[in-house]
Structures are given as structure tokens and as C-alpha cells.
Predict the structure.
Amino acid sequence: MNAFLNSRQLEAVKMIAIITMVIDHLYKVTFDMAAGLEFMTYIGRLAFPLFAFIIAYNYVFNSKQPLRYIKLLFIGGAISIVPWEWALSARHAEMEGVPPALNILFTLGLGLLVTYIADKYQKNKTVQNLTRLIFMGSIILLVAVFAEYGVGGVALVPLMVMWLRRGDAVGLVAVMGLIFLVNSGFMSFVGLLSLACVWLVKKYDLGLPRLPRWFYYSFYPVQFALLRVLGFVI
């Protein structure tokens, strides 16, 4: 598949992902999951598949330095740990089982790392690279258990990459199936609408200007702190 979004359209996808994420976090952090506002978290189910798509799209079509891209995701995730945990500690305490210890940037970074290692093996199918793939894949699998959206969330990124490269119905169905599985109940169906958002952005170019990269990497931790403070105010 060739690149099918221009920079303005990709920027629109990023804006939709950010807006839906903030709506979800407003519900969980600022409004303390108040009754009657549950629709906000349904809207938020659009965010993760859109972020996974953005990461995969940039990896396939735009990134000339994939390792740098992966490092930036992990650095952003590390910087976000404190504000993320501060904002969502009450939600994590209410969760059944073990709450996630790693935020969504780690999930996306792990998914991209799996993709990068697999690509290295595909380019040079040696026993050494196969051993490295199995070893690193096993470690990533263990770490993914503690990340938001778990193993399924990590797997969505390489699956998105496969779909974008193949451009066929099989890849699309696989992506849709995993998006459905990483959510639950009605939210599984809502998550699938993220792909419809991409289609709408391609069809109707909003002409959004490209924002600097630092905005996206700083927005994630900053929004948690701001939403938490806002919760105290209101």
C-alpha cells in the first residue's frame, strides 16, 4: 500500500486521537467517573487504535530513524509515569487484578520495537537474528503484560504495520479483530469506529497545519497534571 494520507490529514487523525483521549481522561480523572457521564469513556475508546495507526503509519511511510522514534516513545513514557499514576491512581486501585504499571506510550513503544526487530530479521535471516528475535520477543511479551491494553495492545502496532504494507482485506480484518478484542462489550464496537475516522479524514481534508513534534510528546504527561488539578478545582 502506498501512503494515502498527506501531512494535513495525518495531523487531523492526531487531533481526533488527542481529543478523544482527553474526553476519556476528563471522565476518569476530573469528573471522577461521575454517573451519567459514561459516554465519555466510550468516546475515549477511539483514541488507542488511532494512536496505534499513527505510530504504524509514521513507521511505514515517514520515519527514517525508527530507533530514534522508539526511544522517544520510551522517554515520553518514562517522563509520564509520575503524572499518569498521580492522575489515575484511584482508577487503578478500583481495577480487578493487577493494574497496569506502564502507560500507553510504553505500549506503543513496545509494539514498534517488536516490529523493528522482526524487520531486522526479515532483512537478514540468520540464526543470530532469529535468536535475537525470540529472546527480545519473549522479554517484550513479559513486559507487555504490565502495560496498558496488555499484549493485545502491543500486538496492534505490528499488525497495523502489516496491514499498511499489504493493503489487503486480510490485514484490515486482522486489525479490526484485534481492536475488537482489546476492548470489551459495547466498547469493542466503538473502537472499530476509529478506522472509520481515518476514512473520513482521507475523504474530507480538514487542512490542519502540522504542529511541532515536541507538542505531542509533552502533551501526554502535561494533560494528566492539568486534569488532576482541574478535578480539585471543580
